[in-house]
Amino acid sequence: MFNALLREYAEFFFKKGLAVELTIAMVIGQQFNVVAHTLTNDLLMPLLMPLIHVGNWQEWSIMYFGNTIAIGKITDMSLNTVLTGFVLFLLLKSLRGSARNLDGPQERARVQPKGQA
Fold it and tell me: Is pLDDT above 60 for 107?
């Protein structure tokens, strides 16, 4: 029974290509994370630094009952998340558009309401 389960799992995981697709998706996702982090640290935040008069923005913190809340790290993570999501959105939008162009123009039949000719 265990051998049959293991064989079925191996067929599902390796023969259907899911492992390769997952690996590629993870590598691409990691690269988007690096791009977003670089855009945040090297482009966006240096442009905002003239508005901030106190040191490095990643070191911002708030003291709260003897503990420290790292506002700079939260800001960095939030900006990276938004930028990564936006880049992925643009990528998916362009992929969908190119897939539509490859399919060719599609004629859409107009549906007329009942009673109208």
Answer: no
